[in-house]
RNA sequence: GGGAUCGUCGUCUAGCUUGGUAUGAUACUAGUCUGGGGGACUAGUGGUCGCAGGUUCAAAUCCUGCCGGUCCCA
């Protein structure tokens, strides 16, 4: 391995796919497991996930949602209770058929999602309107067999996610919950991960199997492909009926409950890597970065060391007292240059360099990761770092938004669409609402309806494909 | 679903056509000098060639199957 091979050896622009994989492996976020389609998270990857889960947990909690735990095995009889749901997931379910050498009668599924299991439990727990709403969230992993085209964080046979399941007395309340969750998702992804999203509905064809409707948030990746960032489903009574999730209302009449389910996965990490990363490696938005500021002390002789280290400690304490997550890189065997590159590969938002020269000048050098700018900051101004972190966060979202806009088009001519889709992007185009057109477009161009943005409809335009009256203006794109 | 391609110390790689138990770099360990953008020198450790069979006196090399990675098309 040459010097260059320690870092990323391909450019994001020229070989996006390889670039992505190298970041995941070389920034030590994850590694491949011995089984196809599975990955192992390493500490630097897992701490990003923890940072995300912490943020979501706070928001869920303030919305009255509490965490629980569900087992990973679901008996086939339960999974099959809602027929469409079962049919939708069956091709990608892993089955447990044996315990030791003995065959299991009712074979067990490794959960592809937990609606059926959760609602079996809910039906035991809910009897009265006083038990509602019931709002729970589960952090776990789900398993869906991916045979081809696996990619760390984006498509793996097992993935970490949260699945939320709520039960309500009325349709209105459940639908409100669907939107509240989608709003939490959108805020978190935009404000914490600095990734702009478009929210709206999935088409009938693309909705969650078993849902009445699915709301989604979609983002556009730098290679022009769309990535589904999270979904929030209104299940209506589709599950409450087969699973008998019912309650006695105030009038003592028994009703089936109204339900929602929703989830985001570690795919968000993949999106963050793709959107913000550059040819030096990962770039973490400050709010989600496990380490926000890394201090690299620079010294050679003992004297310098005695001058530098106390100052480093002082700065560390000051930053920590302001709630900033700081790390001091005191590895003695590595040169400063190596450390600079190393932390850039790992994406830490701000690096502080402090050596004898700086101590004499009563200042430090700070380097911002997202634009790789260096500047000098006086000792008395160190507290400004809080503000700088905020500014970086805002700048990153702004840049990402601009990039997304560049790759978004409004279009109505199908031939134009067919030629432009080759380069990727989001295409807002009128659609008649018929499945047939949706399927044809998919077949001919590889693009599907990613999202029908809220408020889209009542247009005078003709369907891009069949020229009949359109009923909405969805975003078409090729997806991950 | 169809097709292509790859797999050799931790990592990257030579060797494979024309069989004779493996090359170099980097990393790692120890020491000395160094230290403001991936440091230098010296001395060491580390692989039986993805896995399983087969052919052969002999297999990293030839054959078959499997496992895993990557890419393209639907």
The CA-CA distance between the termini, in Å, is: 32 Å
Fraction in beta strands: 25-35%
Structure summary, number of beta strands: 23
- Which segments are poorly predicted (pLDDT under 50) over 5 or more consecutive residues? none
- How many helices? The count is 14
And the CATH topology of the largest domain? BirA Bifunctional Protein, domain 2
**Largest pleated sheet:** 11 strands, mixed
Structural class: alpha+beta
Task: Describe the protein in words.
The protein is 34% helix and 26% strand. Strand 12 and strand 13 form a beta hairpin. It is of the alpha+beta class and 480 residues long. Helix 3 packs across helix 7. The mean pLDDT is 94. The two termini are 32 Å apart. The chain has 14 helices and 23 strands. It has 3 domains: 3-276, 2-Layer Sandwich (BirA Bifunctional Protein, domain 2); 293-388, Rossmann fold; 408-477, Translation Initiation Factor IF3 (2-Layer Sandwich), CATH 3.30.110. The strands form 5 sheets. It has an 11-stranded mixed sheet with strand order 3-7-8-14-11-10-9-22-23-21-20, with helices on both faces. It is globular. It binds one RNA strand of 74 nucleotides through residues 1-7, 17-18, 21, 32, 34-36, 148-150, 296, 298-301, 304, 334-342, 344, 353, 355-358, 365, 443, 446.
């Amino acid at each position: 391995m040459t010097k260059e091979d320690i870092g990323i050896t391909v450019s994001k622009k020229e070989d996006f796919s390889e670039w992505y994989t190298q970041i995941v492996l070389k920034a030590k976020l994850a590694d491949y497991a011995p089984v196809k389609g599975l990955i192992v998270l390493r500490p630097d990857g897992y701490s990003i996930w923890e940072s995300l889960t912490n943020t979501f947990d706070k928001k869920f909690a303030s919305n009255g949602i509490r965490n629980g735990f569900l087992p990973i095995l679901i008996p086939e009889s339960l999974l099959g209770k809602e027929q469409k749901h079962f049919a939708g997931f069956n091709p990608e379910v892993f089955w447990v058929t044996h315990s030791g050498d003995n065959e299991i009668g009712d074979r067990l599924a490794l959960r592809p999602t937990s609606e059926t299991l959760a609602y079996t439990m809910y039906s035991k727990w809910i009897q009265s309107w006083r038990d509602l709403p019931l709002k729970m969230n589960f952090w776990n992993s789900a398993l869906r067999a991916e045979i081809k085209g696996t990619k760390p964080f984006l498509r793996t046979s097992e993935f970490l996610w949260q699945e939320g399941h709520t039960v309500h007395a009325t349709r209105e309340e459940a639908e409100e919950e669907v939107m509240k969750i989608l709003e939490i998702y959108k805020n978190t992804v935009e404000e914490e991960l600095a990734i702009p999203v478009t929210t709206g509905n999935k088409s009938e064809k693309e909705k969650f199997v078993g849902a009445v409707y699915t709301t989604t948030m979609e983002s556009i990746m730098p290679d022009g492909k769309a990535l589904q960032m999270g979904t929030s489903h209104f299940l209506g009574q589709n599950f409450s009926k087969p699973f008998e999730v019912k309650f006695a209302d105030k009038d003592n009449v028994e009703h089936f409950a109204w339900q929602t389910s929703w989830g985001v996965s570690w795919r968000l990490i993949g999106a963050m890597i793709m959107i913000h990363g550059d040819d030096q490696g990962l770039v973490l938005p400050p709010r989600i970065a496990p380490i926000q500021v890394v201090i690299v002390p620079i010294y050679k002789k003992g004297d310098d060391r005695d001058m530098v280290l106390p100052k480093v400690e002082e700065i560390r304490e000051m930053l920590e007292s302001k709630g900033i997550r700081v790390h001091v890189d005191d590895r003695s065997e590595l040169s400063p240059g190596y450390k600079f590159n190393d932390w850039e590969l790992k994406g830490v938002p701000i690096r502080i360099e402090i050596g004898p020269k700086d101590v004499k000048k009563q200042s430090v050098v700070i380097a911002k990761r997202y634009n790789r700018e260096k500047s000098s900051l006086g000792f008395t101004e160190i507290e400004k770092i809080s503000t700088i972190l905020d500014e970086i966060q805002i700048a990153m979202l702004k840049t990402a938004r601009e990039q997304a806009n560049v790759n978004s088009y409004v279009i109505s001519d199908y031939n134009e669409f067919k030629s432009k889709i080759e380069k990727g992007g989001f295409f807002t185009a009128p659609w008649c609402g018929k499945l047939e057109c949706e399927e044809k477009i998919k077949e001919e161009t590889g693009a599907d309806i990613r999202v029908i943005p809220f408020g889209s409809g009542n247009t005078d335009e003709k369907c891009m494909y069949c020229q009949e009256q359109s009923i909405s203006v969805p975003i078409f794109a090729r997806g991950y």
